[in-house]
Request: fold
Amino acid sequence: MSSLPSRGEFIAIVAMLFASIAFSIDAMLPAFPELTAQFSPDDPNRVPLIVTIFMLGMGFGTFFTGPLSDAFGRKTVVLGTAALYILSALGALLAHSLEMLLVARFMQGLGAAGPRVVALAIVRDLYAGRAMARIMSFVMVIFTIVPALAPTLGAGLIWIGGWHAVFWAFAIFATLSSGWLALRLPETLAPEDRRPFRFTALSEALREMVSHQVVRQAMIAQMLCFGVLVVMISNIQPIYDVFFDRAGSVPLWFGGIAIISASASLLNAALVMKVGMRKMVTIVLVVEVILSSAMTLVLLGGVEGAALFACFVLWQTSIFFMVGLTMGNLNALGMEPMGHIAGLAASVMGALGTVGAVILAVPIGLAFDGTPLPVVAGILVFLVGALWIMCRMSSREEMQQPAE
Reply:
């Protein structure tokens, strides 16, 4: 293997690969009004599908990118999926209808699955244990900055060159990040360590995970919690624009909330060793069910103006905070019994969680009626479902404890 870049450069390369995901989602939000006017003026609820269809493609791609990188090497898969991402971004520039744009975004999501999965595998190839945790901590610090900046950057690009400029930026960003990796990072998976790609291995992993009770429950709870995030992200722009008449300030509010919510991961790291993963997730979901119920009552109770906007922003912040306190723990719960097939299990869990969340979230986005009520009510249903699953998981665990 040729020499590796310095640790700082390696962290920057991996962070850029991860950042392309958040950039691809959040930079699109300010483009919704322009895209609505051009492609779907009679049915604006279809435009947020530009976000959800991207996530759907990424979910399907996640099934295969991990095993493919085990078979053909990390760089081959990252560069191949990056090429698909770039071509899809350029293809979106030629779209003359919303349907064509959605197809391009789905393909772009497939391409984005490479950096999402394989970047983590690259880190695993080179680091283990606490060293890996330290590297990922640095990567995530950089990664959390992107959601805060992406909407503002997207708004600036739209001001310069319309929605087309956003897709040009996607293509340029992916070209720079993949080119940097190609030039500076050697292949991290030796040929003798590669495993042939087999569809039967994926199906066997899926069957084993679904048959394991705790893993199955963790996957469903993760899907519901991620569904909450998908619903919120894909409907922020319409709610701020149509209901609150604050479309111009979306990047600022979104950025501030993202910065505040980034501290959830630090809080989780400080508490989870003392509280435990199951209990931590359950407590957080109880709190969020209460807050979402209160937000529903605020909307039904006729609160208006600045007071209603303040309540919504606080509730929106709590949703993003909740995701930071649950998703990692649920992923760990599901992966805990699957150590013998960790790579395949990670691909299956990531894919099912993403695809399932998108399928659940799309009807809620299409039900948007000019008020936040369908979004808040839909999120409340998801949270109640996730809490019910976690309570069943905890109760069964307690019942299975040996008598003292």
In short: Residues 1-197 form a domain with the Growth Hormone; Chain: A; fold (CATH 1.20.1250.20).
